[in-house]
Each structure stands twice: as structure tokens, then as C-alpha cells.
Design goal:
By secondary structure, the chain is of the alpha/beta class. About 40% of the residues lie in helices and about 15% in strands. Strands 10-11-12-13-14-15-16-17 form an eight-stranded parallel barrel, surrounded by four helices. A six-stranded mixed beta sheet has the order 3-2-4-6-5-9, sandwiched between helices. Strands 18, 19, 20, 22, 25 and 27 form a six-stranded antiparallel beta sheet that branches. The chain is globular.
Length: about 800
């Protein structure tokens, strides 16, 4: 009996201690100042609706408080001191725009006070509270003793949300869906939303549009106005010749119609390219007139531009024009396809102009910040716009550029990059916040506090899935096991959350690819084994046996992963309108996130081999057939004393000069970049042709050999690759010996050979440098090499 009493007392103590550590807010009211402005009302509405959706608790929103009941009181410090004089007496302003002071009290019933320095501070303080509440069915609590005074580090923290056909989800969103997403971004500190006008480099319509583009643009501007968020407009200059007076007049009219219809515009950003191609001088004249046009309807709005895609000559003209410090120009935007680095632009643009960052957080290849060393299996299937949580990578990018920019609006083409948006918004508020803490807040709010640790760790695991060769990355197997267990214990509410579905989709897709890659690699090796028997079995029999080995097969586990991927694709279309397939969900194209259509693409050289087999079968003699089989078997063999590099394969590039790498050079301006181009292995290219090493803009791509035979002659065999076949490249040895002048790489990969002069290898070393046409603009890509053989010839 005494033991039972002691146990009861201990349990009672535990309950009381838990009560002392947390505030039970189930019976709280949300108290607003009388006559609160619309953004504060939206903050209260956000608290009310987000809490209800997670707890089933309907906290009333009121303008009067009795001073005794449990409450969440929001407003400015002065307003709070009127509502709760005693509890709010010590509340202070952060001293910066958008800041807030959040504190708790247990003097009587639980009390939470949020004092915003301005309306946005009230909104962001409410978002902070939502990120830290412990919410579940019929449960609402908060850690007691919270006392937080904070303000954002960066004044601009935004994301581009373009309602247009090109995106992998946005074009199917209704106005309520947009409001929910904009609200969720604001909860994590976003203060700017960038819109895209009806005319851009997109199709004029989408079968998924619930509203016309201009009508949805007006709705999104209105939503931002109600929440008190800034509205930016990304407005490309699409016409061919703005120096033509009629063209200019039409542009002023067309842009003016858009400006007039939007209830709020705070800034307009005009890119110099992609799309558009207007000389800087003509562009400056156009934008001076468009600024006056903008001010007719939005007098305080500002005009920003970027020299995106400019070549060297245009960059110099741009610097000369900004040096004149035109009054209409408010700032410069730095983003993808910039010839000069952010540091160079900052050094040459007058300090009066702020620089806003426009980082590409949505693409995994052919991008400003591609995934370093991405496996070809991912690149050829999951593709450019796959679901891509890269929390650690995005933090590296943020911190690399943060010393120079004054804020950012990220480049997004769908909800595939949702985790990355939250990482940027959070770091924009507090650059010192740990990635793990950001992900924990993300998981706690969107998935639930009970699964926050597991889900946040799962997001880090998804990023790790993409690190290193997929064939040897056993962490993929751990990741899928983690997510399958989360799915097993998840509540129905959690299973319906689209962010939960996204992570599950990626985990299952990754696991399916790894299982298939292991199988297809073994199949190709077995097929090569059959071809090696051709001398004894005969060429045709060997080919028949090799073809049998290459027939696609998947394991039972892989089949289950694949089936689950299709189930999740349907769930994601229903929940957030993700278009993961062209025929099923009306995605605009395979490379725009529709990777469900690529899930069965070949991961080995099967299709290339089958095409070679057809050629071999048509050969006129057995000796010719055997010779062609030998060429396949010895493809990577450089002969005695030679060297072979598959430059797009991190495991087979021993002579590639890598440079700084992603951690120090996330744009790969001075580092060798692994790239992808042309056709995938499914379309008949070798895996080694689909991948390449490349350098950007005027930087050289370098290889370096040591230990060469000083008494031998060498020749070089090269396969040029990449996505820019018409971009000429030049090859120089040891800095001054031209191996070949600028020449197009060609649209079909094929080995080409060049003699290496004896003097180039006389000291036993050889340095090779490839460069693309110097001074060119555009994406910066083009200097792309897939395979290199250095072949030892006869003695000198």
C-alpha cells in the first residue's frame, strides 16, 4: 500500500511538473485590439484556422478580454498595454521593422502576448507561435517561460510564385490554395511574393487553369495586400526591338494595363534575358519610361533589373550605364546565367544600388546550383524539377552569398522545392539558425510535433540519398525504411498532408532506382560476359545470349516501391495538384517535373547495346561482327600505358582538376561541374555520353596527367557531350600548344582523335585546357567533355 501511495505521489508530481513546464491553451481566446487593421486580423485568422485544423479546437477571436481567462493577445506594444496592462507592462519593441516580442505568463490562467513592432511583426510573431505550439487532436500547449525578442536580419525574404503553365503544380491552384500557401510561407518569415504577368515565355493557357492568368494575378496581389506582404512582379521584356517607337508604345500600354489591375505592387523586376534579349542602352530607356508608367498606379513602387544572360560587351555597357546612377533604378538583381560573380557586380555597381539575390532553388541540373556529383540514374529519371529537399546545400548557398546581398526572392517553378523555400525564409530571418532546428519547426508545424524529429531527420536523409554514387549508397535503403515506418504509424491527417506525401514519393522513387540500378548493372556485366564468349560461340549466339541478359527485370521489393510511387503521384495530384505525368495529370513536359513518366527509363547501356547489336547483325562477315563486338568490350580500354577518364562519373575521373567544389564554390564558377545533356540512356546514348564534366563561362575545364612515358608519343581520343552542341570549344596543352582550334562539339557523340605534340609530354606531364568561345553570354554552359582517352603510341 505504501509503495502504491509513493507511486501515486510520484505520478502526481510528474503531472504537476509537466503542467509547470507547459501552458495548456485549449480554452484560450485570440484577442485582437479593437478596430485592428486587416493584416492583424489575418494574423488572428491564421492562428484560429491553423490551430483548428490540427487540434479540432476552435479558439474564438475577440476584441475584448476579461483579464482573467486564458488568452493569446496580439497587437503592437502600445495596444497590448491597453488590453493587458500588467502582463504587457514590460514588453518592448525589437527596434526593427517586422520584429516582435513574444512572452508568456502564468499569472492566473495561461497567457501568451505577441507584440509586433508593426503589422507584419504581429503576423510573424503569430507565425513563430504556431511553429512552437504543441498541437494534436484536442491538445494545444506551449512551453512556459518563453520570452523572445527578435527581428529579421534581411529586409527582403521572398519567393517567386508564377501562375503559369510551365510550373509543375502552380497552374492548377485555386485562389484559396494560393492563400493557404502564401500564409504558410509568411508563418516562416516570408515577406515578399513575386508574381508573373500573363505574357512571359510560357504557353498562353493551361488545361488546369481555374482562372485566367490576369485574374489570378489580381487575386494573388489582393491576398498579399490583406496579409500585409510585399508584391514584386517579374516582368520580362519580350519584344524584339524596343527602340521602335510603336513597339515601345505598345509595351507601355500592355504593362500599364497589368499595373492598373493589381491592387498592390511594391517592385518590378525585369530580367535582361531568359527570356528577352534587349541591349542595355535600349533596356534602360524602356525601364525609365516603364517606371513612370508604374508610378501612375503605384507611386511608391520601385524598378529593379538584372543583366542576366548578357555577354561581355553588354556587361561593360551595363556597368557604364549604372555608373551614371539613373534615378529611376532602385536596385540590381543577381541570379542564374550571370557572366560575372556577385562579388564582381557589387564591386562595379554604385553602392547606392542594393543587390537582391534571385537564387535558383527549384532545379537539380542545368541550374545555377546543380546537385554536386549527382548520379546519372537520378538525372535521367527524377530529372530537373524533382522533389528536391536540399536543406544543408541551400544553407551552404545562402551563407556563401549572404555577405553581399540585401535580401532575396527565390526562383521557383513549383512546390517541389517547398523545403528549400522554408530554409531560405528562416535563414533570411536568422542566419545563425541551425538547419536541424529549421527542419524540426517545419516538421512540427506541417506534419505534427509527435513526428517532428523523425520527419526532419528523414528530410536530411533524402538529401543524403543524392550524395555519391547511387550504386554504393546504402543509406537509400535506410531512408526508405525510415519513411515506411513513418507511414505505418502516421495518422490519417498526416497521411493526407501533401508534404508528407512528397517525402514519401521521393523516398520510394530513390529506393526503386537503387534496386533497379543494382539489378541493371549486374545484367550489363552478365551481357558483357556473354559477348566475351563470341570467339567460341559465334557472334550471333553471343549477341542473343547478351540480349537475354539485358531484358529488364525488377525484384519483388522494387515492384512494391514502384506501385507505391504511382499511388503517391495520384495522391499528390489530388492534394496539391502536382503534375508528375504528362498523360495522367497534364504536365507540360517530361522535364517539368513529370518524372513518373521516366520511372522505367534504362539506367544502364541496354538501349545503346541493342542498337549496336542491330548493326553487328547486319555486318557482312563473322570477322566484321567479332571486330565490332571487340570494340564494345574494349570501349574504355586505352591500351598499354594509356589512360581513360569518364569525366561525368565521379568514380572515373582521376585526371580531372576539380577545383574548389560545391562547399566553397556553389555556382561552380571555378570548379569542374558534373553535367548532363543530349539524350538519356533510354534514348540510345551511352551513360558516359549522357554525363560530362564542364566549366562555365570563360573558365577552362582542366585535366592533368603525371607519370607519362617521356620516350613515347601519345594521341588523344575525346567524346564531346553536353547540352550545347553548337557551342565551339578549343583545346590547348600546357597553356600554349593548340591541339585544336574552336570547333562545334556536334549533335551526335562520337570519338574524335588528335595527335599530342612530342614537346607537350617531354617532361612526363600533360596539362589540358578546354574553353568555350570567350566573352559569350547565355547560360554559361558549353565547355562540356564526356570521355577522354590518352593513348600511348610508338616511341619517339
Amino acid at each position: 500500500m505504501k509503495k502504491l501511495l509513493r507511486l501515486t505521489a510520484l505520478l502526481s508530481l510528474c503531472v504537476c511538473s509537466q503542467g509547470m513546464d507547459t501552458l495548456d491553451l485549449r480554452d484560450a481566446s485570440i484577442v485582437l485590439p479593437p478596430g485592428a487593421p486587416t493584416p492583424q486580423k489575418k494574423a488572428a485568422q491564421t492562428l484560429h484556422e491553423e490551430i483548428e485544423s490540427r487540434t479540432q479546437l476552435r479558439l474564438p477571436v475577440v476584441e475584448r478580454w476579461d483579464g482573467r481567462s486564458s488568452a493569446i493577445v496580439i497587437g503592437t506594444p502600445a495596444e497590448l498595454r491597453k488590453i493587458a496592462p500588467k502582463a504587457a507592462s514590460g514588453m518592448k519593441a525589437s527596434g526593427k521593422a517586422e520584429g516582435f516580442h513574444l512572452t508568456t505568463s502564468r499569472d492566473g490562467e495561461p497567457l501568451v502576448l505577441i507584440a509586433g513592432d508593426d503589422d507584419r511583426g504581429v503576423l510573424f510573431g503569430s507565425g513563430y507561435l504556431l511553429r512552437h505550439l504543441d498541437m494534436s487532436r484536442q491538445h494545444l500547449s506551449l512551453e512556459s517561460g518563453l520570452d523572445v525578442v527578435t527581428a529579421p536580419k534581411f529586409p527582403v525574404r521572398g519567393h517567386q510564385l508564377g501562375y503559369r503553365p510551365k510550373t509543375n503544380s502552380y497552374d492548377a491552384w485555386s485562389a484559396p490554395m494560393w492563400e493557404q500557401y502564401i500564409r504558410e510561407l509568411a508563418i516562416f518569415g516570408t515577406n515578399t511574393i513575386e508574381l508573373i504577368p500573363p505574357r512571359s515565355d510560357d504557353a498562353p493557357d493551361s488545361p488546369l487553369f481555374p482562372l485566367r492568368q490576369i485574374d489570378m494575378m489580381v487575386e494573388m496581389s489582393r491576398i498579399c495586400q490583406e496579409y500585409g506582404l510585399n508584391v514584386s512582379v517579374w516582368y520580362p521584356a519580350m519584344e524584339k526591338d524596343y527602340s521602335d517607337p510603336q513597339t515601345l508604345e505598345k509595351a507601355l500600354h500592355d504593362w500599364g494595363e497589368v499595373f492598373q489591375k493589381l491592387p498592390r505592387i511594391d517592385e518590378v523586376f525585369v530580367p535582361g534575358g531568359d527570356p528577352g534579349h534587349t541591349k542595355p542602352g535600349v533596356m534602360f530607356t524602356l525601364l525609365e519610361k516603364q517606371t513612370a508608367n508604374l508610378h501612375k498606379y503605384h507611386p511608391r513602387a520601385t524598378m529593379w533589373m538584372s543583366p542576366q544572360g548578357f555577354d561581355k560587351a553588354w556587361m561593360e555597357e551595363f556597368y557604364e550605364l549604372t555608373g551614371r546612377q539613373p534615378a529611376w533604378l532602385s536596385g540590381i538583381v543577381f541570379g542564374p546565367q550571370f557572366r560575372d560573380s556577385l562579388a564582381e557586380i557589387r564591386a562595379r555597381v554604385p553602392k547606392r544600388y542594393a543587390i537582391r539575390f534571385y537564387p535558383d532553388i527549384t532545379h537539380s541540373l542545368h541550374a545555377q546550383f546543380p546537385v554536386p556529383g549527382w548520379d546519372a540514374a537520378f538525372a535521367s529519371t527524377e530529372g530537373r524539377e524533382t522533389i528536391n529537399p536540399r536543406p544543408r546545400g541551400e544553407a551552404v548557398i545562402f551563407h556563401a552569398f549572404a555577405p553581399v546581398f540585401n535580401g532575396f526572392v527565390t526562383y521557383s517553378e513549383g512546390c517541389n522545392d517547398d523545403v528549400n523555400k522554408i530554409v531560405w525564409s528562416s535563414l533570411g530571418w536568422n542566419p545563425n539558425q541551425k538547419v536541424e532546428d529549421i527542419l524540426h519547426e517545419y516538421a512540427s508545424f506541417f506534419i505534427g510535433s509527435g513526428m517532428a524529429s523523425a520527419f526532419s531527420q528523414g528530410l536530411l536523409s533524402l538529401e543524403q540519398d543524392w550524395s555519391g554514387p547511387l550504386l554504393s549508397n546504402s543509406s537509400v535503403d535506410t531512408t526508405i525504411a525510415q519513411f515506411q515506418e513513418m507511414a505505418r504509424i502516421a495518422t490519417p491527417w498526416q497521411k493526407l498532408r501533401w508534404r508528407f506525401q512528397q517525402a514519401q514519393y521521393r523516398a520510394h522513387y530513390d529506393a526503386f532506382l537503387r534496386s533497379r540500378l543494382i539489378s541493371e548493372t549486374a545484367q550489363e556485366n552478365a551481357a558483357m560476359g556473354e559477348l566475351r564468349k563470341a570467339g567460341s560461340t559465334g557472334a550471333l549466339a553471343a549477341i542473343q545470349a547478351a540480349e537475354e541478359q539485358l531484358k529488364p527485370r525488377i525484384s519483388e521489393d522494387a515492384a512494391q516501391y514502384r506501385a507505391r510511387v504511382f499511388e503517391l503521384a495520384e495522391a499528390l495530384f489530388q492534394s496539391v495538384r502536382m503534375q508528375l505525368s504528362v498523360p495522367r495529370y497534364n504536365a507540360i513536359g517530361l522535364r517539368r517535373g513529370a518524372n513518373l513518366d521516366a520511372i522505367d527509363f534504362a539506367l544502364n547501356n541496354r538501349v545503346w547495346l541493342e542498337n549496336r547489336f542491330a548493326e553487328i547483325k547486319a555486318a557482312g562477315s563473322e570477322s566484321a561482327r567479332l571486330e565490332k563486338i571487340s570494340a564494345i568490350l574494349n570501349w574504355t580500354n586505352p591500351g598499354p600505358g594509356g589512360f581513360y577518364d569518364d569525366l561525368g562519373n565521379p568514380a572515373q575521373q582521376p585526371h580531372l582538376v576539380l577545383g574548389h567544389g560545391f562547399d566553397r564554390d556553389p555556382e561552380f564558377r571555378n570548379s569542374a561541374l558534373m553535367g548532363f545533356g543530349g539524350k538519356t540512356p533510354q534514348e540510345g546514348w551511352r551513360v558516359s555520353w549522357f554525363t560530362d564534366a564542364e566549366s562555365l563561362f570563360d573558365a577552362p575545364l582542366r585535366m592533368h596527367y603525371t607519370g607519362l612515358d617521356r620516350g613515347a608519343r601519345y594521341k588523344l581520343r575525346v567524346v564531346y557531350g553536353g547540352d550545347s552542341p553548337r557551342m565551339p570549344v578549343r583545346l590547348v596543352a600546357n597553356g600554349n600548344i593548340q591541339i585544336h582550334d574552336y570547333r562545334p562539339k556536334g549533335t551526335v557523340p562520337e570519338p574524335v582523335e588528335f595527335d599530342i605534340p612530342a614537346e607537350a609530354t617531354r617532361d612526363g606531364e600533360l596539362a589540358l585546357e578546354w574553353t568555350r568561345t570567350q566573352g559569350a553570354g547565355g547560360s554559361g554552359r558549353g565547355c562540356q567533355v564526356s570521355e577522354v582517352w590518352l593513348i600511348r603510341m610508338e616511341e619517339k
